[in-house]
Amino acid sequence: MSLYPSLEDMKVDKMAQAQVQYRQHVANTVTSGSVPGQQPSGLYPSLDEYMGLSLTPETIAQNMPVVAQSPQTVAVPSSGGVLAPVSGQTNVGIARAEIKQGIREVVVCKDGNGKIGMRVQAVSKGIFVAFVLSGSPAAMGGLRFGDQLLQINGSNVAGWSRDKAMSILKKADEQRITFAVRDRPFERTITLQKDSAGYVGFVFKNGKITAIAKETSAARNGLLIDHALLEVNGQNVIGLKDKEVSKILADSPRTVTITIMPNFVYDHMMKSMSSSLVKKSMDHSIPDV
After folding, report:
1. Which of 33, 89, 111, 193 has the highest CB neighbour count under 10 A?
2. For the segment 29-40, what is each residue's pLDDT rounded down to a tens digit?
3. Which residues contact 82 (CB under 8 A, 6 or more apart)?
4. Which residues of 255-286 are buried (b: 16+ CB within 10 A; e: fewer)?
5. From 3-7, 34-38, 122-126, the region with the lowest mean pLDDT
6. What is the distance between the alpha carbons of residues 235 and 106, in angstroms, rounded to a whole number?
């Protein structure tokens, strides 16, 4: 079974397969002599008119080679994996935003002031990263907002309070602190495609999604209101002004991957967090792939 980053990817792939199959059918008919002189023709409107997307010949050739080849080419049925005829198989934004399964180990040390550069919050008997200071050891170690800490220096943290976790971190050795981390379990990513006007179809205020426009990529891909906008193409946008986030969205390529979290979880994680600290010091660096 194939998977797709967005509904547009799935629809375009299905349409492309149907076009190839139709062309092959007509080509076979011509070869057999049943319809002399008939040439293969398109079954569907051109791809650049489909769902408001502007797909250049270069995009089609790069991501849908079976369509770009001759009409006699037979489509090979996909056997699984992720297909991205619109987004592209090597989309950097999707890779940066990906929420990985499994557990990873993160090792950091403290800075010259004895700080890690991270604050945590207790949620449902777990400990989660609620703030990462820009340029801090935590940021350089790859910790992100929403990461769940499972262990600190080998000690299981399930059931700990926020205060206990912060106390343990303050007392930890400055040279080496080891975390077992689960990647952002409360979050999910949604890949959207800009229309010909450059819009993906949602409205946000104070970093929270408030409206979804009909017949847009946001609506087609199941984006919901009452969710906080956390990342755009893997870049943390928490604490940024709405106009700054809008600029990041506007400057993004056609395919945009956003990371979201339900408001009630986000509000709990940000409880007691200084808004000025988040706005001035939250890590907004672009993660490495």
Report:
1. 193
2. 766 665 555 544
3. 2, 3, 4, 5, 89
4. bbbbbbbeeebbebbbeebeeeebeebbbbee
5. 34-38
6. 20
